[in-house]
Design a protein that fits this description.
The chain is α+β, with helices and mostly antiparallel strands. 33% of the residues lie in helices and 14% in strands. A hairpin with a 2-residue loop joins strand 1 and strand 2.
């Protein structure tokens, strides 16, 4: 029996070899680091001019999923925000809201009026992903809340 080994693939974006791949897009296999960078880039698409998530590349320029031919919909199934999915179908903002409700809710399952300003301030920040990380890696934060 002959065993054939495939040559190691490299990331289509950063050319690193021997990395974990997150997806295969039209330009090739994309490593996890490049996938995260791509799905966190927002701006004006260089092809169509729309203001949106820019995970794709066309001629080395960031572009939207439609112009890049990426067959993935990055819209949050709850709020409609186009962003990197954190949990199945949900963006970081919706996941942060869920996590905070679990921490701050009273016996009725609602955030009490006295804690609502804190909840609102945390959930309306631009970088919800950073707040989720803060809650996850900092046990004192969850104890405090």
């Amino acid at each position: 029996m002959t065993v054939t080994t495939r040559p190691p693939r490299n990331c289509a974006r950063c050319a690193r070899i021997g990395v974990r791949f997150a997806v295969t897009w039209p330009e090739g296999s994309v490593c996890r680091r490049c996938y995260q960078r791509a799905t966190r880039t927002h701006g004006t698409c260089t092809d169509c001019g729309d203001q949106r998530l820019l995970p794709g590349l066309v001629d080395g320029r960031p572009c939207c999923t439609d112009c890049a031919g990426i067959p993935k919909d990055f819209h949050c199934t709850r709020c409609g925000r186009e962003d990197e999915p954190v949990r199945v179908g949900l963006c970081a903002h919706c996941c942060l809201a869920d996590d905070l409700i679990a921490l701050l809710a009273d016996t009725t399952g609602q955030v009490s009026p006295t804690l609502l300003p804190l909840f609102t301030a945390l959930t309306q920040q631009t970088h919800a992903r950073s707040a989720r990380t803060w809650l996850t890696v900092n046990p004192h934060a969850t104890q405090l809340l």
